[in-house]
Design brief:
alpha/beta, six-stranded mixed sheet, three-stranded antiparallel sheet, 15 helices, rod-shaped
């Protein structure tokens, strides 16, 4: 099981371990310093101990930067504090969600897990929250989501909430129902505490009035430290009642989460490769469409026309024909006039034509073609009109047509023989990686107290969106805004990827139908398929 069977009562010399968690600015580090300094009050009395009050957290683990919303703690550290007859081991964690980015938080989680793994068990997980804030902030949601990713499911029973900057719940502005909804389970009333930390007041007095005598400090803060001491006793009493959680499960969950993140990255790369391949196919498809258009525009390079043609047909009888330019008139067929050149006739050949039935006796003009008699002749053939097919080639259009035809053929062969197989392999890889990712996500969600892996990403997204809104104008100049926008796009891509992975077809499905949406199988023009339609 996740929880050990240690007893619930305090044993002299026993160590109780607390995991201290809070968003940047919640007062977590000040609480740690309070725990130590309260012991001086118990030992030496307030007036004497006030002179010795100091910061207990190790300076080497502190962030030297004083920028707002940067965590004061830059590494996890185990502090052991004697409190009455017990030893309290407090694992101080870095404040999540500071402005240095998610990579810092990722390293923080690893530091926490390593430090937790150094002890055998954890008695309680104490969430420090600024009780004066009006609502649960995106930053708090993010803190909870990050830490719950490495907390076993049963650890919700070991959660304690400390509302800082409040003496009791009547002063707290935050809605505890909203808080518990993000913690993944109901927090018992006896595990909710309020604290107006006098150590913070002490630090302010020292900074504003460094020469103020300790006696005056003691007078002003004695009662506050007394109340704080009782609150600490109540927290420790509550912690002793909780069944310890074995820490080996923290590392197991961290490894599971790492596996999910690696699987997500692999799937993102595979999807990007598939999208790039589909883009290449789309460009080739456009080239085919352009080539098809070129073919269509130049397909009329060959034109055939019907042309009427005059031919000479030989006959058995003599005929009077017109020989004027462009006139192919059969003026008198089967004419009985003597044959031209017949020496038995005592007339000139041309004069014989005057006697033809088609000639006017006065004008000697042909009544049929209206040409003069001297353009006519008398022969044994006639004119006939016949239609003839004539083909015309536009050589420039023909060249463009043939080039376009070759382009279509070459590109279609390329897409079918090469891109087809590559796309099929890419799509199969995406399907397999999707199945692998969902299996790892399901395995992680079965064991972690986190609501879901998608919820972790949503909390990161909310935090980034909050920072984008809060980024000042100079953030655009120094590149802060561009980095935030880039991070937001990556988180949106991850969420979309998870959604699609759950909807992805099984690896056994024949994906040829999907490939047909992208690879053209005919020379017909078609629109390029959007990558979103494929995956």
């Amino acid at each position: 099981g996740n929880q050990s069977s240690k007893g619930n009562s305090a044993t002299k010399g026993e160590v109780y371990h607390m995991l201290l968690v809070g968003e940047t600015g919640s007062g977590k580090t000040s609480f740690l310093n309070l725990v130590y300094n309260v012991q001086l009050v118990h030992k030496l009395g307030f007036a004497t101990s006030a002179k010795q009050f100091r910061k207990y957290n190790k300076i080497k683990f502190e962030n030297p930067s004083k920028r707002p919303m940067e965590s004061a703690t830059i590494g996890s550290e185990l502090y052991e504090v004697r409190f009455e007859d017990m030893t309290i081991g407090i694992i101080d964690t870095p404040g999540f969600g500071d402005t240095r980015g998610f990579e810092i938080d990722k390293q923080n989680v690893k530091d926490i897990v390593d430090k937790v793994n150094g002890v055998e068990y954890i008695n309680c997980i104490c969430f420090v929250i600024n009780g004066r804030q009006a609502r649960v902030t995106p930053q708090f949601q993010y803190v909870v989501s990050e830490i719950s990713a490495v907390l076993p499911k049963m650890s919700v029973m070991n959660m304690v909430v400390l509302l800082t900057n409040t003496r009791d719940e009547t002063e707290a502005n935050i809605d505890m129902k909203e808080v518990t909804s993000f913690l993944g389970g109901e927090i018992m009333q006896e595990n909710i505490f309020c604290l107006e930390n006098p150590y913070c007041k002490l630090e302010k007095l020292r900074n504003k009035k460094p020469d103020l005598p300790c006696e005056e400090i003691a007078t002003g803060l004695k009662d506050d430290f007394s109340v704080a001491s009782k609150t600490l006793e109540a927290i420790l009493t509550s912690m002793m009642r909780l069944n310890p959680v074995k820490t080996c499960d923290f590392m197991t969950l961290f490894v599971m989460k790492e596996a999910v993140e690696k699987a997500t990255l692999k799937l993102m790369i595979a999807c990007q490769n598939q999208a790039s391949l589909i883009k290449v196919i789309g460009l080739k498809k456009q080239e085919i469409d352009e080539a098809l258009k070129m073919k269509t525009l130049n397909q009329s390079f060959k034109n055939t026309y019907t042309v009427p043609k005059i031919v000479i047909v030989y006959t058995e009888d003599r005929n009077t024909l017109c020989g004027a330019d462009g006139c192919y008139s059969n003026c008198h067929l089967e004419c009985i006039l003597p044959k031209q050149g017949d020496h038995k006739v005592k007339m000139c050949d041309k004069d014989i034509i005057k006697l033809c039935h088609c000639m006017d006796e006065v004008t000697n003009i042909c009544s049929k073609c209206h040409h003069s008699y001297d353009t006519h002749y008398h022969m044994m053939h006639k004119f006939e009109k016949k239609d003839e097919q004539v083909t015309y080639f536009d050589e420039a259009m023909k060249e463009r047509y043939e080039m376009a035809e070759k382009s279509v053929e070459d590109l279609s062969t390329l897409m079918k023989d090469q891109l087809d197989s590559k796309l099929k392999m890419a799509m199969e890889e995406v399907v397999q990686l999707s199945e692998d990712l969902i299996n790892k996500v399901n395995h992680f969600e079965e064991h972690a107290s986190a609501a879901s892996y998608a919820k972790l990403i949503e909390c990161q997204l909310m935090l980034v969106e909050q920072r984008i809104k809060a980024t000042p104008a100079d953030g655009v100049i120094n590149g802060i805004m561009s980095e935030l926008v880039k991070t937001k796009e990556q988180l949106l891509e991850k969420l979309q990827l998870l959604t699609k992975a759950r909807q992805a077809p099984s690896a056994s499905k024949d994906i040829n139908a999907d490939i047909n949406l992208v690879i053209p199988r005919t020379s017909d023009s078609a629109k390029c398929c959007d990558p979103e339609d494929i995956y």
